[in-house]
Amino acid sequence: MTRPKNAIIRYTLPNRINHWITAICFVLLVLSGLSMFHPMLFFLSGLFGGGQWTRAVHPWIGVVLLLSYLGLIVQFWRENLLNRDDAAWMKSIGPVIANDEEHTPPVGRNNAGQKLVFWSMTLLIPVLFFSGLAIWEVYFGAATSIPVQRAAALIHSLAALAAIIVWIVHVYAAIWVRHSVRAMTQGYVTPGWAWRHHRKWLLELAQHGKTDDSRKRT
């Protein structure tokens, strides 16, 4: 698809590759984890070649997820620091949910909801990783006692449930705000989209002269 001449780059190609590696790993972990969580969901293990393969591959996907998310942290942590705009945005959560941007305070590159998703995952993914190490019997079974493994399994399950809820909110918001998905698939947004949803970010780009040549970036 041809990119509009006035398009503004929101996510570069490395940004998008990093994001989709993380997303794919997360979905694979959810499917494989659910197959081991309850017998009724064991049929999902067929996606990975059966129960033994699921148990073997699940923790390694978790390692890839952690490394990939570290890449997102390095790239985006500054843009997700909370500020006064976020408090105003949260107070206007009604118009936000109704997608009524005319009555929503202008925000920068990311709004408070996006920032909360980012920091929630920044907390939950390490919790999932380290609790998963404690129950990774092949490598760490001998180093952890049964009570520790039981506690780790409970923490791992609760953290996974919380991460799934955060992921559902993230996906729903991306679909709800029209053309948001395009920013992460094709990398660009239109000036109209930026003005409506991230007005302060657009003004910052214009102030620094980054809107005219942004379409030339990769």
CATH fold group of the largest domain: Fumarate Reductase Cytochrome B subunit
SSE order, as H and E? EHHHHHHHHEHH
The CATH H-level homologous superfamily of the largest domain: Transmembrane di-heme cytochromes, Chain C
Number of DSSP-assigned strands: 2
Question: How far from one another are the termini?
Answer: 15 Å
Helical run tally: 10
Strand order of the largest sheet: 1-2
Low-confidence stretches: 212-218
Average pLDDT number: 91
Q: Pairing-aware structural class of the strands and helices?
A: mainly alpha
**How big a fraction of the residues is strand?**
under 5%
What top-tier CATH class of the largest domain fits best?
Mainly Alpha
**Overall geometric form:** elongated
Radius of gyration: 20 Å
Instruction: Give the name of the CATH architecture of the largest domain.
Output: Up-down Bundle
| Percentage of residues in helical conformation | 55-70%
Features:
single chain, 218 residues, mainly alpha, Fumarate Reductase Cytochrome B subunit, 2 domains, two-stranded antiparallel sheet, 10 helices, 2 strands, disordered C terminus
Brief account:
By secondary structure, this protein is mostly helical. A two-stranded antiparallel sheet has the order 1-2.
